[in-house]
Amino acid sequence: MEIEIVPLDPATLKTAPTSDFGFGTNFANRMFTQNYTKGEGWHSAKIGPYENLSLPPSTAVLHYSQEIFEGLKAYRRPDGNINLFRPWENMKRFNNSAMRMAMPAVDPEEHLTAIAQLVEIEHDWVPTAEGSSLYIRPAMIATDAALGVYSSHTYLHFVIVCPVGAYFAAGFNPISVFISDSYRRAVKGGVGATKTGGNYSASLFVSEQVKEQGYSQVLWLDAIEGKYIEEVGAMNICFVYEGKKIVTPPLTGSILPGITRMSVLELGRDLGYEVSEERTSIDDILADIESGKITEVFGCGTAAVIAPVGKFGYADKEYTINDYQVGDVSKHLYDELTGIQYGRIPDRFGWTYTIEVE
Ligand code: PLP
Ligand code: COI
User: pTM of the full predicted structure?
Assistant: First the structure.
Protein backbone atom coordinates (compact mmCIF):
# COMPACT_ATOMS: atom_id res chain seq x y z
CA MET A 1 0.00 0.00 0.00
CA GLU A 2 1.33 3.42 -1.01
CA ILE A 3 0.14 6.04 1.46
CA GLU A 4 0.00 9.52 -0.04
CA ILE A 5 0.95 12.17 2.51
CA VAL A 6 -1.03 15.29 1.68
CA PRO A 7 0.92 18.45 2.62
CA LEU A 8 -1.04 20.78 4.92
CA ASP A 9 -0.66 24.54 5.09
CA PRO A 10 1.23 25.14 8.39
CA ALA A 11 -0.90 28.25 9.01
CA THR A 12 -4.03 26.08 9.30
CA LEU A 13 -2.62 23.65 11.86
CA LYS A 14 -4.08 23.51 15.38
CA THR A 15 -1.69 23.17 18.31
CA ALA A 16 -2.05 20.07 20.48
CA PRO A 17 -3.60 20.74 23.90
CA THR A 18 -1.56 19.86 26.98
CA SER A 19 -4.43 19.51 29.50
CA ASP A 20 -8.24 19.30 29.81
CA PHE A 21 -8.51 16.71 27.07
CA GLY A 22 -11.98 15.36 27.80
CA PHE A 23 -12.67 12.24 25.78
CA GLY A 24 -12.81 12.22 22.00
CA THR A 25 -13.64 15.81 21.18
CA ASN A 26 -10.41 17.42 20.01
CA PHE A 27 -8.81 15.72 17.01
CA ALA A 28 -5.32 16.02 15.57
CA ASN A 29 -4.84 17.82 12.25
CA ARG A 30 -4.63 14.72 10.09
CA MET A 31 -6.46 11.47 9.49
CA PHE A 32 -5.84 8.33 7.45
CA THR A 33 -8.38 7.33 4.80
CA GLN A 34 -8.66 4.69 2.12
CA ASN A 35 -11.52 3.56 -0.09
CA TYR A 36 -12.80 0.18 -1.18
CA THR A 37 -14.58 -0.58 -4.40
CA LYS A 38 -15.87 -4.07 -5.16
CA GLY A 39 -13.78 -5.59 -7.95
CA GLU A 40 -10.93 -3.17 -7.35
CA GLY A 41 -10.18 -3.64 -3.65
CA TRP A 42 -8.67 -0.99 -1.34
CA HIS A 43 -7.23 2.11 -2.98
CA SER A 44 -6.51 5.84 -2.55
CA ALA A 45 -4.74 5.45 0.83
CA LYS A 46 -3.73 8.81 2.20
CA ILE A 47 -2.92 10.77 5.31
CA GLY A 48 -4.62 14.10 4.76
CA PRO A 49 -6.43 16.80 6.73
CA TYR A 50 -8.92 15.84 9.45
CA GLU A 51 -12.03 17.14 7.73
CA ASN A 52 -15.76 16.58 7.34
CA LEU A 53 -16.93 13.70 5.19
CA SER A 54 -19.28 14.46 2.36
CA LEU A 55 -21.93 11.71 2.06
CA PRO A 56 -25.28 11.66 0.29
CA PRO A 57 -28.24 11.29 2.70
CA SER A 58 -28.91 7.90 1.10
CA THR A 59 -25.53 6.50 2.23
CA ALA A 60 -25.98 2.92 3.47
CA VAL A 61 -24.27 3.37 6.86
CA LEU A 62 -26.71 6.15 7.80
CA HIS A 63 -29.67 3.80 7.42
CA TYR A 64 -28.58 0.26 8.19
CA SER A 65 -25.49 0.79 10.39
CA GLN A 66 -23.06 -1.28 8.37
CA GLU A 67 -20.17 0.06 10.43
CA ILE A 68 -17.31 -1.18 12.58
CA PHE A 69 -14.68 0.49 14.72
CA GLU A 70 -11.71 -0.10 16.99
CA GLY A 71 -10.13 1.69 19.93
CA LEU A 72 -6.49 1.67 20.93
CA LYS A 73 -4.09 4.16 22.46
CA ALA A 74 -0.62 5.60 21.93
CA TYR A 75 1.25 6.16 25.18
CA ARG A 76 4.17 8.56 25.79
CA ARG A 77 7.16 6.70 27.17
CA PRO A 78 9.60 8.27 29.68
CA ASP A 79 12.26 8.37 26.88
CA GLY A 80 9.92 10.45 24.68
CA ASN A 81 9.14 7.63 22.25
CA ILE A 82 5.63 6.26 21.86
CA ASN A 83 4.10 2.85 22.61
CA LEU A 84 1.09 1.23 21.02
CA PHE A 85 -0.36 -1.55 23.17
CA ARG A 86 -1.02 -4.91 21.46
CA PRO A 87 -2.13 -3.20 18.22
CA TRP A 88 -1.96 -6.56 16.41
CA GLU A 89 -4.99 -7.65 18.45
CA ASN A 90 -6.97 -4.59 17.34
CA MET A 91 -6.09 -5.27 13.70
CA LYS A 92 -7.31 -8.85 14.11
CA ARG A 93 -10.52 -7.84 15.86
CA PHE A 94 -11.22 -5.18 13.22
CA ASN A 95 -11.17 -7.86 10.55
CA ASN A 96 -13.31 -10.21 12.65
CA SER A 97 -15.82 -7.40 13.00
CA ALA A 98 -15.61 -6.74 9.24
CA MET A 99 -16.35 -10.39 8.50
CA ARG A 100 -19.42 -10.45 10.78
CA MET A 101 -20.76 -7.24 9.25
CA ALA A 102 -20.18 -8.53 5.67
CA MET A 103 -17.49 -5.91 5.05
CA PRO A 104 -14.12 -6.34 3.32
CA ALA A 105 -11.04 -7.18 5.39
CA VAL A 106 -8.15 -4.76 5.57
CA ASP A 107 -4.56 -6.00 5.32
CA PRO A 108 -3.63 -6.08 9.04
CA GLU A 109 0.01 -5.12 8.48
CA GLU A 110 -0.91 -2.23 6.20
CA HIS A 111 -3.55 -1.09 8.68
CA LEU A 112 -0.96 -1.05 11.47
CA THR A 113 1.58 0.74 9.24
CA ALA A 114 -1.03 3.41 8.45
CA ILE A 115 -1.74 3.90 12.18
CA ALA A 116 1.96 4.02 13.09
CA GLN A 117 2.64 6.54 10.32
CA LEU A 118 -0.26 8.75 11.39
CA VAL A 119 0.89 8.66 15.03
CA GLU A 120 4.46 9.42 13.99
CA ILE A 121 3.40 12.44 11.93
CA GLU A 122 1.09 13.64 14.72
CA HIS A 123 3.49 12.73 17.55
CA ASP A 124 3.12 16.18 19.13
CA TRP A 125 -0.47 15.15 19.90
CA VAL A 126 0.61 12.26 22.14
CA PRO A 127 0.29 13.99 25.52
CA THR A 128 2.70 13.72 28.43
CA ALA A 129 0.31 14.53 31.31
CA GLU A 130 -0.17 11.74 33.89
CA GLY A 131 -2.82 9.23 32.76
CA SER A 132 -3.24 10.81 29.33
CA SER A 133 -2.72 9.21 25.93
CA LEU A 134 -3.60 9.56 22.26
CA TYR A 135 -6.78 7.62 21.53
CA ILE A 136 -6.79 6.01 18.08
CA ARG A 137 -10.13 5.32 16.45
CA PRO A 138 -10.08 3.23 13.25
CA ALA A 139 -13.50 2.80 11.64
CA MET A 140 -15.07 1.48 8.45
CA ILE A 141 -18.40 2.54 6.98
CA ALA A 142 -20.55 1.35 4.08
CA THR A 143 -20.74 4.14 1.51
CA ASP A 144 -23.06 2.94 -1.27
CA ALA A 145 -25.69 5.61 -1.93
CA ALA A 146 -28.69 3.26 -2.10
CA LEU A 147 -31.56 2.27 0.17
CA GLY A 148 -31.63 -1.42 -0.72
CA VAL A 149 -30.65 -3.69 2.17
CA TYR A 150 -27.52 -5.46 0.94
CA SER A 151 -23.81 -5.50 1.72
CA SER A 152 -22.42 -2.28 0.25
CA HIS A 153 -20.05 -2.41 -2.73
CA THR A 154 -18.03 0.56 -1.51
CA TYR A 155 -16.50 1.44 1.87
CA LEU A 156 -14.49 4.12 3.58
CA HIS A 157 -11.87 3.10 6.13
CA PHE A 158 -10.52 5.93 8.26
CA VAL A 159 -8.40 6.48 11.35
CA ILE A 160 -8.73 9.56 13.55
CA VAL A 161 -6.72 10.38 16.67
CA CYS A 162 -7.35 12.56 19.73
CA PRO A 163 -5.58 13.16 23.04
CA VAL A 164 -7.61 11.85 25.97
CA GLY A 165 -7.58 11.85 29.75
CA ALA A 166 -9.56 9.52 31.98
CA TYR A 167 -12.72 8.11 30.40
CA PHE A 168 -14.70 8.47 33.62
CA ALA A 169 -14.93 11.85 35.30
CA ALA A 170 -13.98 10.07 38.54
CA GLY A 171 -10.50 9.25 37.12
CA PHE A 172 -8.97 6.18 38.79
CA ASN A 173 -11.68 6.07 41.46
CA PRO A 174 -14.67 3.79 41.97
CA ILE A 175 -17.70 4.17 39.72
CA SER A 176 -21.31 3.08 40.20
CA VAL A 177 -22.74 0.51 37.80
CA PHE A 178 -26.40 -0.31 37.23
CA ILE A 179 -27.31 -3.91 36.41
CA SER A 180 -30.15 -3.97 33.92
CA ASP A 181 -32.84 -6.45 34.95
CA SER A 182 -35.15 -5.98 31.97
CA TYR A 183 -33.18 -4.77 28.92
CA ARG A 184 -30.53 -6.85 27.13
CA ARG A 185 -27.50 -5.91 25.09
CA ALA A 186 -26.72 -8.85 22.83
CA VAL A 187 -27.55 -12.45 22.16
CA LYS A 188 -25.33 -15.37 21.20
CA GLY A 189 -25.34 -15.63 17.42
CA GLY A 190 -25.91 -11.88 17.13
CA VAL A 191 -23.29 -9.12 16.95
CA GLY A 192 -22.37 -8.66 20.62
CA ALA A 193 -18.81 -9.85 20.02
CA THR A 194 -18.46 -7.42 17.11
CA LYS A 195 -17.31 -3.86 17.58
CA THR A 196 -20.16 -2.24 15.67
CA GLY A 197 -21.97 0.98 16.47
CA GLY A 198 -25.40 -0.61 16.85
CA ASN A 199 -24.35 -2.37 20.06
CA TYR A 200 -23.67 1.04 21.59
CA SER A 201 -26.76 2.86 20.34
CA ALA A 202 -28.88 -0.04 21.62
CA SER A 203 -27.50 0.53 25.12
CA LEU A 204 -28.19 4.27 25.31
CA PHE A 205 -31.81 4.05 26.45
CA VAL A 206 -30.92 2.35 29.73
CA SER A 207 -27.62 4.15 30.30
CA GLU A 208 -29.27 7.56 29.93
CA GLN A 209 -32.05 6.53 32.34
CA VAL A 210 -29.66 5.46 35.09
CA LYS A 211 -27.20 8.31 34.61
CA GLU A 212 -29.64 10.54 36.45
CA GLN A 213 -29.35 8.22 39.44
CA GLY A 214 -25.57 8.60 39.46
CA TYR A 215 -24.59 5.44 37.57
CA SER A 216 -21.74 5.72 35.03
CA GLN A 217 -22.32 2.44 33.21
CA VAL A 218 -24.74 -0.45 32.74
CA LEU A 219 -23.82 -4.09 33.33
CA TRP A 220 -25.63 -6.46 31.00
CA LEU A 221 -26.90 -9.94 31.76
CA ASP A 222 -27.24 -12.68 29.17
CA ALA A 223 -30.23 -12.28 26.87
CA ILE A 224 -31.59 -15.83 27.07
CA GLU A 225 -32.07 -16.32 30.82
CA GLY A 226 -31.33 -12.85 32.14
CA LYS A 227 -29.22 -14.60 34.74
CA TYR A 228 -25.53 -14.63 33.83
CA ILE A 229 -23.08 -11.73 33.98
CA GLU A 230 -21.87 -10.59 30.53
CA GLU A 231 -20.12 -7.21 30.37
CA VAL A 232 -20.42 -3.48 30.95
CA GLY A 233 -21.25 -0.84 28.30
CA ALA A 234 -17.67 0.06 27.42
CA MET A 235 -15.62 -2.53 29.29
CA ASN A 236 -15.40 -6.14 30.43
CA ILE A 237 -15.98 -7.00 34.08
CA CYS A 238 -13.83 -8.82 36.64
CA PHE A 239 -14.60 -9.98 40.18
CA VAL A 240 -11.94 -10.48 42.84
CA TYR A 241 -12.54 -13.20 45.41
CA GLU A 242 -10.82 -12.86 48.80
CA GLY A 243 -8.10 -10.70 47.30
CA LYS A 244 -6.61 -13.70 45.48
CA LYS A 245 -8.75 -14.92 42.60
CA ILE A 246 -9.81 -12.91 39.53
CA VAL A 247 -12.93 -14.15 37.73
CA THR A 248 -14.38 -12.85 34.45
CA PRO A 249 -17.17 -14.24 32.23
CA PRO A 250 -16.04 -16.51 29.38
CA LEU A 251 -16.30 -15.39 25.74
CA THR A 252 -19.56 -17.11 24.91
CA GLY A 253 -20.20 -15.11 21.73
CA SER A 254 -22.27 -12.21 22.99
CA ILE A 255 -19.58 -10.14 24.72
CA LEU A 256 -16.71 -8.19 23.22
CA PRO A 257 -13.39 -10.06 23.44
CA GLY A 258 -11.56 -7.22 25.15
CA ILE A 259 -7.82 -6.85 24.68
CA THR A 260 -7.50 -5.41 28.18
CA ARG A 261 -9.49 -8.39 29.51
CA MET A 262 -7.08 -10.76 27.77
CA SER A 263 -4.13 -8.81 29.21
CA VAL A 264 -5.59 -8.79 32.74
CA LEU A 265 -5.94 -12.58 32.60
CA GLU A 266 -2.33 -13.04 31.42
CA LEU A 267 -0.89 -10.37 33.70
CA GLY A 268 -2.95 -11.52 36.70
CA ARG A 269 -1.66 -15.07 36.31
CA ASP A 270 1.91 -13.81 35.94
CA LEU A 271 1.54 -11.73 39.13
CA GLY A 272 0.50 -14.82 41.09
CA TYR A 273 -3.28 -14.44 41.19
CA GLU A 274 -5.55 -17.33 40.39
CA VAL A 275 -7.45 -16.32 37.25
CA SER A 276 -10.50 -17.97 35.83
CA GLU A 277 -13.16 -17.50 33.14
CA GLU A 278 -16.43 -18.56 34.72
CA ARG A 279 -20.07 -18.20 33.90
CA THR A 280 -21.45 -16.59 37.03
CA SER A 281 -25.04 -15.80 37.92
CA ILE A 282 -26.15 -12.43 39.16
CA ASP A 283 -27.61 -14.06 42.30
CA ASP A 284 -24.27 -15.63 43.21
CA ILE A 285 -22.40 -12.39 42.56
CA LEU A 286 -24.74 -10.32 44.74
CA ALA A 287 -24.67 -12.94 47.52
CA ASP A 288 -20.86 -13.02 47.39
CA ILE A 289 -20.70 -9.24 47.57
CA GLU A 290 -23.01 -9.24 50.59
CA SER A 291 -21.05 -11.97 52.37
CA GLY A 292 -17.74 -10.21 51.65
CA LYS A 293 -16.39 -13.12 49.61
CA ILE A 294 -16.08 -10.76 46.63
CA THR A 295 -13.59 -8.20 47.83
CA GLU A 296 -13.30 -6.08 44.65
CA VAL A 297 -14.96 -5.57 41.29
CA PHE A 298 -13.36 -3.75 38.36
CA GLY A 299 -14.06 -3.08 34.71
CA CYS A 300 -11.31 -3.20 32.11
CA GLY A 301 -11.02 -1.69 28.66
CA THR A 302 -8.85 0.54 26.52
CA ALA A 303 -10.76 3.72 27.34
CA ALA A 304 -11.64 2.66 30.90
CA VAL A 305 -8.19 1.11 31.68
CA ILE A 306 -8.91 -0.55 35.08
CA ALA A 307 -12.05 0.99 36.55
CA PRO A 308 -12.89 -0.04 40.13
CA VAL A 309 -16.62 -0.56 40.70
CA GLY A 310 -17.71 0.80 44.09
CA LYS A 311 -21.39 0.04 43.85
CA PHE A 312 -23.92 -2.00 41.90
CA GLY A 313 -27.58 -1.05 41.62
CA TYR A 314 -29.97 -3.92 40.85
CA ALA A 315 -33.75 -4.15 41.21
CA ASP A 316 -34.19 -1.23 43.62
CA LYS A 317 -31.31 -2.30 45.86
CA GLU A 318 -27.72 -1.10 46.11
CA TYR A 319 -24.67 -3.25 46.81
CA THR A 320 -21.53 -1.46 47.96
CA ILE A 321 -18.20 -3.09 47.20
CA ASN A 322 -15.02 -2.62 49.25
CA ASP A 323 -16.52 0.44 51.01
CA TYR A 324 -16.48 2.29 47.67
CA GLN A 325 -12.68 2.35 47.79
CA VAL A 326 -10.05 1.41 45.21
CA GLY A 327 -8.95 -2.12 46.10
CA ASP A 328 -5.39 -3.44 46.29
CA VAL A 329 -5.79 -5.88 43.39
CA SER A 330 -7.29 -3.22 41.10
CA LYS A 331 -4.46 -0.85 42.01
CA HIS A 332 -1.83 -3.55 41.51
CA LEU A 333 -3.18 -4.44 38.05
CA TYR A 334 -3.60 -0.77 37.12
CA ASP A 335 0.02 0.00 38.07
CA GLU A 336 1.43 -3.04 36.26
CA LEU A 337 -0.70 -2.63 33.13
CA THR A 338 -0.16 1.11 32.74
CA GLY A 339 3.52 0.57 33.65
CA ILE A 340 3.91 -1.65 30.58
CA GLN A 341 1.72 0.55 28.37
CA TYR A 342 3.69 3.71 29.15
CA GLY A 343 7.05 1.91 29.08
CA ARG A 344 7.75 2.64 32.75
CA ILE A 345 8.41 -1.03 33.44
CA PRO A 346 9.96 -3.60 31.08
CA ASP A 347 7.52 -5.31 28.72
CA ARG A 348 8.12 -8.99 29.54
CA PHE A 349 5.22 -10.06 27.32
CA GLY A 350 6.14 -8.45 23.97
CA TRP A 351 2.92 -6.41 24.06
CA THR A 352 4.26 -3.04 23.00
CA TYR A 353 5.00 -1.61 19.55
CA THR A 354 7.35 1.33 19.89
CA ILE A 355 7.34 4.28 17.50
CA GLU A 356 10.64 6.14 17.67
CA VAL A 357 10.24 9.89 17.56
CA GLU A 358 13.11 11.10 19.74
N1 PLP B 1 -16.65 -4.35 26.00
C2 PLP B 1 -17.14 -3.31 25.29
C3 PLP B 1 -18.58 -3.31 24.97
C4 PLP B 1 -16.29 -2.29 24.84
O5 PLP B 1 -16.75 -1.26 24.14
C6 PLP B 1 -14.91 -2.35 25.18
C7 PLP B 1 -14.01 -1.31 24.71
O8 PLP B 1 -13.40 -1.40 23.71
C9 PLP B 1 -14.46 -3.46 25.90
C10 PLP B 1 -15.35 -4.42 26.31
C11 PLP B 1 -13.01 -3.61 26.24
O12 PLP B 1 -12.25 -3.94 25.10
P13 PLP B 1 -10.74 -3.52 24.96
O14 PLP B 1 -10.07 -3.94 26.18
O15 PLP B 1 -10.27 -4.24 23.76
O16 PLP B 1 -10.73 -2.04 24.78
C1 COI C 1 -12.63 1.61 23.95
O2 COI C 1 -12.34 1.33 25.11
O3 COI C 1 -11.77 1.81 23.09
C4 COI C 1 -14.01 1.71 23.52
O5 COI C 1 -14.24 1.52 22.39
C6 COI C 1 -15.02 2.04 24.53
C7 COI C 1 -15.90 3.21 24.19
C8 COI C 1 -15.22 4.52 24.11
C9 COI C 1 -16.83 2.93 23.07
Answer: 0.97
